[in-house]
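Q: I'm building a small set of examples for a reading group on sequence design. Run inverse folding on the following structure and report the sequence directly after it, with nothing in between.
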């Protein structure tokens, strides 16, 4: 288990607990009471730390190296029923954007999402979860296929942003994202969007227009990352914590300004501490959201979706 800087008090107590248990196993000394006291203190420390997380600490949790990624969710939810589909029928298959058909029970879904890597090799292979234009065009091709066969769409967002390289701009990165936003507003099947980690800028919006926008408790969703915001405003990354607070990027902030519809609670310590519970919660939420949308006609779906986004940012002073 890897620990973030603010989690070091938890690490110290867990180390103490391990030592205490080893002493109990290797000697005749009864350490039951001591272990119970440490466990009690550990739980209290965890509750205290995770109850009072700053915006920057939540950003750090969303990037935790052990945090589950898109394929982890899909494989856990769909099992052997997931069939990955490839290519945008134009340039190539973007490994940063994955998608395909999978089943929850008897219901088929089209799953689409950004995929990050687990080590240096796979991070390069997945381009750090930053999709090129062909990734967004692949996503749109899959959405259109889903629409054709009346299959609901589930998108999983986890990206530091769309790939900003020269070749991506040459192939129309901005146009590809804008096209996806336009087409998703009028897609005639239910769209359920879940922000599972990082939700940055247009890279997130390119697959982020939906009837239901759900967000994991320790995910973040913003027009820009705290580091990039800090570098623009202060010409330095040193002010990223101040930027994170100012950007209002946490799940609670997004809920408050009605950018998301529901916060999905994570296990104490984050999604990575109890993956099975997280996967089950996300699966149950997808099913519940689909149940709310499945009886709406295509016209009702589109009208409600357009109304939803038209009302965003409409404040009375």
């Amino acid at each position: 288990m890897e620990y973030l800087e603010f989690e070091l008090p938890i690490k110290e107590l867990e180390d103490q607990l391990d030592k205490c248990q080893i002493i109990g196993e290797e000697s005749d000394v009864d350490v039951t009471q001591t272990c119970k006291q440490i466990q009690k203190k550990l739980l209290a420390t965890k509750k205290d730390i995770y109850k009072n997380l700053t915006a920057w600490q939540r950003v750090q949790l969303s990037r935790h190296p052990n945090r589950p990624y898109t394929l982890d969710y899909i494989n856990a939810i769909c099992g052997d029923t997931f069939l990955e589909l490839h290519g945008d029928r134009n340039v190539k298959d973007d490994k940063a954007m994955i998608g395909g058909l999978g089943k929850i029970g008897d219901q088929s879904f089209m799953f689409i999402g950004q995929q990050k890597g687990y080590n240096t090799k796979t991070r390069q292979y997945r381009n750090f979860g930053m999709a090129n234009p062909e990734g967004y065009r692949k996503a749109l091709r899959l959405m259109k296929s889903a629409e054709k066969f009346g299959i609901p769409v589930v998108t999983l967002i986890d990206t530091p942003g769309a790939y900003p390289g020269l070749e991506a701009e040459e192939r129309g990165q901005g146009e590809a994202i804008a096209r996806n936003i336009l087409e998703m507003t009028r897609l005639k099947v239910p769209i359920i969007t879940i922000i599972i980690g990082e939700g940055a800028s247009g890279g997130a919006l390119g697959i982020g227009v939906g009837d239901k926008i759900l967000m994991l408790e320790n995910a973040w969703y913003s027009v820009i990352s705290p580091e990039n915001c800090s570098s623009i405003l202060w010409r330095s990354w040193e002010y990223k914590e101040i930027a994170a607070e100012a950007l209002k990027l946490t799940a609670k902030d997004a809920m408050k300004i009605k950018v998301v519809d529901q916060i999905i609670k994570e296990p104490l310590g984050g999604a990575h501490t109890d993956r099975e519970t997280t996967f089950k919660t996300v699966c149950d939420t997808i099913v519940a959201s689909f149940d709310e949308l499945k009886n709406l006609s295509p016209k009702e779906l589109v009208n409600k979706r357009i109304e939803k986004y038209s009302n965003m940012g409409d404040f009375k002073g």
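Strands lie at 83-84, 97-104, 107-114, 153-159, 191-200, 212-216, 220-222, 262-264.
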